[in-house]
Amino acid sequence: MPDLYLSRLTLSHFRSHQAAALAFDARPVALYGPNGAGKTNILEAVSLFSPGRGLRRAAAQDMVRQPDGPGWKVTGVLHSLEQVHEIEIWSEGGQPRQLRIDGKTAAQAALGRIARVLWLVPSMDRLWIEGAEGRRRFLDRMTMSFVPDHAEATLAYEKAMRERNRLLKDQVRDGHWYVALERQMAEAGLAIHRNRQVALERLKAAQDAAETAFPAAGLELLPGEGGMPETEPDLRDALHTGRARDIAAGRTLIGPHRADLGAVYTAKGVPAAACSTGEQKALLISLILANARALAQEFGAPPLLLLDEVAAHLDAARRAALYDEVCTLGVQAWMTGTGPELFTDLGARAQYVEVTETGCESRAEQEVSTP
Fold first, then answer.
1. Could you list the residue range(s) of the whole structural domain that residue 87 is in?
2. Phi and psi of 50, rounded to 5°?
3. Residue 279: inside a domain
4. 1 falls in which pLDDT band (50, 70, 90)?
5. Does the pLDDT value for residue 304 go beyond 80?
6. Which partner from 69, 180, 210, 337 sits 20 to 30 angstroms from 295, CA to CA?
7. Is the whole model's pTM more than 0.90, yes or no?
8. Alpha carbon of 161 to those of 129, 209, 227, 250: distances in Å?
9. What is the CATH number for 322?
10. Predicted pLDDT at 40
11. Does a structural domain hold residue 99?
12. Is 100 left (phi over 0), alpha (psi -120 to 50) or beta?
């Protein structure tokens, strides 16, 4: 199977890194160093090689190294499906980030055609016990990995819904103002719903076919209060008939923005929210690995995988099992930890970067590592 990996990554005035230039092969990458040294900042830079706002969902102006200003730049050499691409991502003067692929200006959506990037970060550890918004975002990231156009459908739906909500808050009752917006919401909304269903089907198939040390999760797309119509005309009609109720509430009360992701620890039949903290983490890892396996088959290469501080929250057996599965999958997984001892079980199967901080500047130094 062809590889998907970064062979070179450079950072300029990005977060805590004034300058960094790193070279890699296709093996996993272990970044270690004290908390606050800048390890996650490197992962965030790699996450920008996919459409969207990156693993921190930060605005471009928030990524510049302070007090340097006025801009930052990330470049990389991406090997994808037996092709090599030079990627440049940058922002100047606080403006939205820009992209060039092989020297040509491109839209972010173009990244979805040449790369897939998945991530698991500590802020997701409470995914199963906090609000539905985080679970929707998690589901949509997985969905976008299978259907890159999902991002465009989501943006179109959210834009039309914001305009409709503005009319609702202003108590506008003239139906003519709503017709076009509700048509747009129905078209994009059904695309979102169906894309999510496709993603869940592919994740289920990947879990069913896998031999893994991590627990399978039974997933269900929950429509939320008010339900989710199954056809575009039905959603359009539901928005039309629900205007009076929505005006009273000041917001749209039906649609894919009300959905939730239900999860059950399959072997125990226990909802994810009722599982222990360790079990919840294991379920998240299981889903990320299933997502990666499914993409390896569908996209033709495993994705880049970003695992922030994942090793610290696993016992020794689970940690070794994770490393074995990552290596078997052939994914370039970027993993962070506070010390090299967390990655002992990887041995020569990985390449290592020590990240330190001097003053307010991060430094990333590579160790010599041979396969």
1. 1-116+300-371
2. -130, 160
3. no
4. low
5. yes
6. 337
7. yes
8. 27, 39, 17, 12
9. 3.40.50.300
10. 96
11. yes
12. beta
What distance in Å separates the CA atoms of residue 221 and residue 136, rounded to the nearest whole number?
Answer: 10
∠ at Cα 70 (66, 73), nearest 5°? Answer: 90
The per-residue pLDDT for range 42-53, each reduced to its tens digit, is: 999 999 999 888
Q: How far is CA 290 from the centre of its chain?
A: 14
Residue 338 backbone dihedrals phi, psi, to 5 degrees: -80, -20
CA distances from 238 to 167, 179, 207 (A): 17, 12, 35
Place of tokens 């575009």: 232
Helix 132-146 / helix 277-298 crossing angle, nearest 10 deg: 20
Asked if residue 284 is part of any domain, the answer here is no
d(CA 306, CA 328): 16
Q: Please tell me what DSSP assigns to residue 64.
A: B
Roughly what angle, to the nearest 10 degrees, separates helices 150-169 and 132-146?
Answer: 140
Give the separation between CA 343 and CA 168, rounded to whole angstroms. Answer: 54
How many domains is the chain built from?
1
Residue 352: φ, ψ to 5°: -125, 140
**How many CA atoms lie less than 13 Å away from 79 in the CB half-sphere?**
17
- C-alpha angle 107-110-111 in degrees, rounded to nearest 5: 110
